[in-house]
User: Fold this.
Amino acid sequence: SVPPGWTYEHDMELGHFLYDHSEKKLQCVDCTKEHINSIEVSSQTEDCVAAHLTDNLTYTFWESSGLPGQHWVRLNMKKGVIVKRLWLTLDGQSSSYVPRRVAVYGGTLSRLQHLRTVLINENSYQNVCILRDMKTHMPVLEIRFLECRDQGYNVRLQGIKIVSFWEWDLILNADMFQPARLVRYPLLEGVDADVLYRRAVLIQRFVQLLEGVLCYLIPLSEDSIGTFNALR
Assistant:
């Protein structure tokens, strides 16, 4: 049952609370091999292949082979992974192979959306963060290299690094709803911790169920505002 006096706004605030407290304490460790299913590239040379992007070796590289502006790296993420930080490890020894302008796209492969365009500082010679603090899971992240330094034709990367967490990396318990944690959530202050816990469990179950059927519900009908409002 709905707690007495509980409103939609309470659910929204509880949802924000759960998101803010769902991330494990992240350390600066590379989650690439644990959280990425596979990596695709636009092209590669015989000795500098895509596998070198994740081998953690300082003397190996991935290098593209083709026309400028047509190079990309595609990360196929494991289900439920949310990216906290995405870095490129540059090869600063060869200036013309260093990317100058990079665009990041995310979503499903058939519907990639622009997330960010980064102009890489000329003084950057090692790790460059090109994406941070994603809020939702992206099945695919695609890094497009729009321009290289010194009008270079191809891209060379020493590697990529990711810090990420699982979408439901949250173990719910009543102890997490301590008053000190609720000071930034005024609608939740004063609500019994057991009530908040039971409501949080309900929200979590609902989201897991919705995720399982969402692919059958959206898109319901193109340009159908009424249908979408009914679902909402």
